[in-house]
Design goal:
2 copies of one chain form a homodimer. Chain A is mainly alpha-helical. Chain A has 21 helices and 3 strands. In chain A, helix 4 (about 130-150) runs antiparallel to helix 13 and helix 7 (about 195-230) packs parallel to helix 9 (about 260-280). The longest helix of chain A has about 35 residues, at about 195-230. In chain A, about 40% of the residues are buried. Chains A and B meet through helix 1, strand 1, strand 2, strand 3 and helix 4 of A and helix 1, strand 1, strand 2, strand 3 and helix 4 of B. Strand 1 of chain A pairs parallel with strand 2 of chain B.
Chain lengths: ~600, ~600
């Protein structure tokens, strides 16, 4: 029997080490190609293919090459050995092969049908990297960035509608998809287990609430750390801490059996809402840019890998019926989610959700990184492999067809994009007075009760506790809390308060600058009624991935405290505001 | 026989998945602690422990806890099984255990002495992560950042000395260390193999040259891509491309059998020297900050891990004699490197390397991330394990003792730090005229021949080809190259050239601004001779890790082209410069 030791000589071990570099190099190469293609597309204003779609195309081509240009390396692949004495499968196995001991690591349990002829193709094996890397390393920055760069004003303004779509909509989708796909003609379809349903709903709510609390708690700790220490003197440490604590929110939620995705999303929102205000100017820019780059790279790695996985994943199970059923199910489920809920929401909304926006919401049900990361986590059993293969095709289809079709669809439905709702209206309006009145109608939408309740609580208690801004807690908390209030209130907040008390109509630099612009604009014409249909804007349609933290542009906006008359006009003296200004109420620099 | 399946039920598989999150969480926790400690130290101006030393301390404590608070999980650990039919060790092994097939991955060949009782401790096993991650993922950003943030003016000014220490010094160290440690009394010490020595030297030079070329080539490609495309309109793509191409330099060198460390170092230097000038303002800041954060995090992960590895690495081989020998060897080798070479260099240098700087260079021979990453790559055989354990102790010792002792040492040797050599001298000087004369003496140092040759070539050919600045190639290349010259020269370079030709004494905005400051300063007093001993500054002593790219502050400096009289005074009209100004020679915004 000829002995063919592997990785024993220095040279072969060296080749083994090089493989790690080659694997990463392949991904780098794919990403470089993707970036150059994105640039080419942007430069020539091609919009028929979304950039992540491009990443998938290159991944597919590379997968095709790897699959058919490499041969299985192990001749004995597919052979099952028997080590009789073993009673269970240990995580580490020491095996004596021709008088030499080798260490083997447990990888997975496999069913017989999985022993494919490609089993031993070490190249494909190498290119299939640990799903936990997707889940624990690549996914968190994407989700966090979505939360961190969320346009919070639009988000909170439409909080009720968003929550309705998110919870009720997802529940409807789940039920519809569930009853169409996991459904089998053999079983009794009437056997609906009410107890199991409510238990699931309860579990869902408990896990959601726990994850939300975990994510917010990590953000609150970061906010307190950045508020009460002088960490802002060292922006690098500040950025590092924000990064690590936010990532820990994800990991901690996962380790605790909750869902990291929800935790890190709300961690991002909370960090942007509170911690961001405590950061040094350097860290504000640094964190924003860091997460933007990380999001960009992680997203493209995942989409490249998806393309690659179609050919390199060695245990695909394609079931035409299941795939068709899945496609059908997700469309029916989305329709059942969007249209009925929009109808219900429109009953209560002053600014209705128009039909064309409902169609876009229907159309924009894209599946991407999250679906993939969830599906690739478990691919041990055959049903799981079928799920994974189907999810992969769903992502391909929705990204290419719907992602690529978004621009024509928006044009066809006559929806303008890339404009702030208020900005868009302003551009449509012919004079500044018109814009003022529109602002008033806009603020009416903002005064939805959920928003008002939240805003009041946030302004009076959370902002003063977690940041340097807001009214001092001594003015908002009851008398007996004063020792604590004094401890928690930032000296800067007292400063702002004093300024407010000194001069009734104090005007900051920003206000003056804006006041000057508005004054110049107001010289144009008399007030006019706005055209509410001038440019309808859908709720939650702002791309979460546009990378604008949305804080800079809001710094110039002034809004009164809740309970006071809403006003969109400035309190600059000499400009003659139509509404009563906030008066002695402190004005916030960052409302959201 | 009782069957104890592992990872088969959904619940156990779920726990397996959670372990990945827990492992990352432990590192996040260590890094958060480290950051808070660094802040505390910085805040209280404690300098007895370097920040990486702190990371190691926390790693050690965590390692201690993991080692002694966790029990081996596999009861059958240490048992070697026999799978008779196998003739070699395949990369994937399918094993039938109680009628269920499990897949096992090849990990390593082990010698009998390695089968320790801790073999099966899955927790320790989990915390020991793949050495290739250190080498291919964590090390490149550290080295790249060193190159990218290198203070190039000081580097090139002392190029000769640096190369002498780097090559000749390393060679001397290698020989000394080699003859003290790999030396054994049994063998004949006179058996010096001249052929093997020259072959090694040849190999070293070939690999170095190849790696240097590879790294520079990647940077040149990046420079050309950023120069000839309008990628700067999309800073995110630009940053992504710079990041990926630079990392590819490392991976490609490794895959080609060269050394990635050298490749990525020179890639960083070249990127900073050329590509940086082509980047958009956004990308300049973004890349600088991105690499700074990545360097900071990667460095701290590695040092945390080192602390951890002392207790969690399961195959330590501590040999007191070898460890003592290694410590002795590196000190003797460094002494043989620094003192004789400094003596030789001082024979040719106008600005001598003073004794106190030589002592600091002797003292600053710290071992860190590179030594560790190299040692951990191969820990299969017993000598390799002994090397790894010894390297770990060496890093601990040098980082704690020498890293912590640096501040007292510098104070004791009366060396001021944190000042630019020229700046330092300027601060010492009592008037601006004094500073002028000092500048003249400083530029003499710069006119070392190696520097001049390089500077001329770079200014005439490389800068104009790879960036938008420098003289048009049509003026520097011979007539017959003109078609190519026109193709490669940036339109902006012609613009600069035209401006130069239009006005003989053209003054840019920067020059005017600086001129104003200098004029204000020059009103103070008459010229005076400088005190050359005012503040001696060592060559190459600028910390490579200080994170200052050093380009911003140099943008205001003007230097004449080589061959012209050196001048440190400005050519602003009306200020009356002592030296003849560069005249028609184009003035560079970034000399280095």
């Amino acid at each position: 029997m000829e002995r063919r030791p592997r990785f024993t000589s220095g040279k072969e071990e060296y080749q083994f080490q090089r493989q790690g570099a080659v694997e990463l190099l392949v991904f780098n190469f794919l990403l470089i190609l993707t970036i150059l293609t994105i640039w080419l597309f942007k430069n020539h204003r091609c919009r028929f293919l979304h950039e992540t779609g491009g990443a998938m195309v290159y991944g597919l081509i590379m997968g095709l090459i790897l699959r058919y240009a490499t041969a299985p390396t192990d001749m004995e692949s597919g052979t099952v050995y028997d080590c009789g004495k073993l009673a269970f499968s240990p995580s580490t196995l020491l095996i004596n092969i021709t008088d030499q001991v080798y260490e083997y690591k447990y990888k997975r349990e496999i069913s017989q049908h999985n022993i494919s002829p490609h089993q031993g193709n070490a190249v494909l094996e190498k290119m299939t990297f640990d799903p936990e890397i997707f889940f624990n390393v690549l996914l968190p920055p994407i989700i966090f960035h979505a939360g961190y760069s969320l346009k919070k004003r639009h988000f909170f303004r439409n909080l009720g509608s968003i929550l309705t779509y998110a919870f009720l909509g997802t529940a409807i989708s789940c039920i519809v998809i569930g009853s169409i796909s996991i459904y089998s003609p053999k079983e009794n379809p009437n056997a609906f287990d009410a107890a199991a349903f409510f238990q699931s709903a309860g579990n869902f709510l408990a896990i959601f609430a726990g994850s939300f609390a975990m994510g917010s708690a990590y953000a609150v700790v970061t906010a307190l750390l950045t508020k009460f220490t002088k960490l802002c003197e060292f922006p690098l440490l500040e950025t590092g801490l924000l990064f690590l604590l936010s990532w820990s929110a994800f990991l901690c939620a996962e380790a605790a059996g909750l869902t990291g995705i929800v935790a890190v999303l709300f961690c991002g929102v909370t960090q942007a809402h509170y911690t961001y205000n405590n950061l040094s100017l350097d860290s504000k820019m640094r964190t924003k840019q860091l997460f933007e780059v990380m999001n960009f790279l992680a997203e493209n790695v995942i989409f490249c890998y998806m393309g690659l996985a179609l050919f390199t994943f060695q245990n695909h199970v394609f079931n035409a019926l299941f795939i068709l059923g899945a496609f059908l199910a997700i469309f029916v489920a989305r329709a059942c989610n969007i249209y009925p809920l929009s109808f219900l929401l429109n009953l209560g909304r002053k600014q209705k959700i128009p039909w064309n926006f409902q169609h876009v919401m229907m159309f924009s049900g894209l599946r991407g990184a999250i679906a993939f990361a969830l599906a690739i986590r478990d691919t041990e059993s055959q049903p799981q492999q079928m799920m994974f293969s189907t999810a992969l095709l769903l992502v391909f289809c929705t990204v290419w067809v719907f992602g690529g079709g978004t621009t024509p669809m928006l044009a066809w439905l006559q929806i303008r994009v890339g404009v702030d709702p208020a900005e868009g209206v302003k551009q449509e309006a012919t004079s500044q007075q018109e814009a003022n009145s529109v602002d008033k109608s806009t603020t009416k939408t903002e005064s939805a009760w959920l928003f008002r309740v939240w805003y009041g609580f946030d302004h009076k208690y959370l902002k003063p506790i977690l940041t340097h801004s807001g009214p001092p807690l001594t003015t908002t908390l009851p008398e007996w809390c004063h020792p604590l209030s004094r401890l928690l209130t930032s000296p800067r907040a007292y400063g702002e308060q004093l300024k407010e008390e000194d001069a009734e109509c104090i005007v900051s630099q920003d206000e003056l600058a804006l006041g000057f612009q508005e004054a110049a604009a107001s010289a144009l014409g008399p007030p006019a009624t706005p055209d509410p249909k001038a440019s309808p804007q859908a709720p939650g349609l702002d791309s979460m991935h546009e990378g604008d933290l949305g804080l800079g542009s809001y710094a110039l906006r002034l809004e009164s405290t809740p309970g006071q008359p809403q006003h969109g006009q400035l309190a600059s003296p000499g400009l003659g505001s139509q509404d009563a200004p906030g008066g002695r109420e402190p004005r916030l620099e960052n409302v959201m």
